[in-house]
Amino acid sequence: MASKFLHLHICNELLEIVELLLNPTVAPSIILGEEARPLSSEPRNTSSQEEGSGAQPVERFHQEKAVSLESLIIGAIENAFKQMDKQIERERSAYSITGGCCALAVLYMMGKLYVANAGDSR
Fold this sequence. Notes:
Order of helices and strands: HHEHEHEE
Organism: Polyodon spathula (North American paddlefish)
Radius of gyration: 22 Å
Protein name: PPM1H phosphatase
Number of helices: 4
Low-confidence stretches: 30-50
InterPro entries: PPM-type-like_dom_sf (IPR036457), PPM-type_phosphatase-like_dom (IPR001932)
Pfam family, one: PP2C
Mean pLDDT: 77
Number of strands: 4
Distance between the termini: 19 Å
Helix content: 40-55%
Strand order of the largest sheet: 1-2
Keywords: Membrane, Transmembrane, Transmembrane helix
Shape: extended
Structural class: alpha+beta
């Protein structure tokens, strides 16, 4: 099943980010949700010295984080493997099939070689 469908899952996942890959001058970013609040750079201390200082905590990270194109490609490949895993699980449940999967995928994009594996293929 993986030999027939894994490459399609990889293609579909890469199609979702193709615009970012074709136009690398536009830096992709992730906006953190409201539940992710900036943290101070130092551990919180309840000493009387800190209470009277009135200093604002220094942000450890910004609400907007840049994501490299390499990370997007790796994420797309990982998502494709997860989708393949879900598809195999559905088939195994529906048809009471035993067994597993062994898969190896190699992708050359933007001057880099990406290798991914599942099962005993390492």
